[in-house]
Amino acid sequence: MNRRELIVASGGIAATALSGCLGLGSGNADVPAQQSSPTVEERTGQTVIVSNTGEVQGEPDLAILDVGVEASGDSAGAVRSELATRSEELRTALLEFGLDEDAVTTSRFHISDRVDRRRMEEEGVRPDSPEAEEYVYYEGTHAFSVEVAAIDDVGGVIDAAVDGGADRVGRVTFTLSDERRTELREEALRKAIQGARTEAEAIADEVGTSIAETTVVDASDGRVSPVHREVAFEAAATATETAGDGAATGVHPGDVTVTADVRIQYRMA
C-alpha cells in the first residue's frame, strides 16, 4: 500500500508569500516596503514523503527438504544407538544420489521419555505406583535439512530419502539462492523507487510545483516469500511404487515473490 505525506513547515511557502507582500519596514511609514522574492532556504520547508513497494516474482533455484528417521525403545541409549545407525544410512543414501556433504545437515535431534498412559489405564495401574515405571519408554528423532540446488532433482531426492529409510518426509521449501535473491531484490527496489517518484511528481504537480531533489531514502525493508509444499510420506512412497522403477516423485513449485519497501522524501522546487 502506498503512503504519502505532504509536509509544509512553518516558514515554508505560505510564510514566504506573506513576507513577499508585506516586506520589511524601516520604521518610516512614508518609505515603501521593499519587495523580496522567496529564497531557496525559505522554500526548503515544503517536502513530500512517499512510501512505495516494488514486487517481482521469479522461479526458485533452491529447494530445502525436511527428512528424518525416528526410533523408540525401552531406554534412551537404545534409541540413540538406533538413530545413529539409521540416520547414517539415510545420509549415505542422499550422498549417493549426488548431493554434497554440506547440503545434508542435522536440523533437529532429540530423545525424550514418554508414558504409555492408555496401556496403564487399560491395565489399571496408577501413575504414582511403583509399577508405573514399567510403562515408561523413549522416543527420538534425527532430522536433516537437505538443500537441493537443481529443482528438477527434488522428486528424486525424496525417493532416495524414502529408499534410504526415512520415516518422515515433511515440508519442501522452494526459495532462492543468495545470488538470485540479490538480483530480484535490486529489480524490486528499482520498481519501488520508480513508483515513488511517479507519485511524488503527481503530488507536486497537483499543488503547483515540481520535485527539486531527493533528500532522504529509506530502503531497509523487504522480504522474500518462499513457496512451501507439504509432502506426505505415504504420498511419496505410493507415487514411486505406482510410477514404476526409475520414476521420481513429482513436486511442482511456484514462483517466489520478492518485495522491497522504500520511503523517500523529496524537496519541492
Automatic annotation (TrEMBL):
Q: Which PROSITE patterns match?
A: PROKAR_LIPOPROTEIN
By its UniProt entry, which Pfam families does this protein fall under?
A: SIMPL
Q: Which InterPro entries match?
A: 26kDa_periplasmic_antigen, SIMPL/DUF541
- One GO biological process from the UniProt record? DNA damage response
Name of the protein in its database record:
SIMPL domain-containing protein
What is the organism of origin for this protein? Halomicrobium zhouii
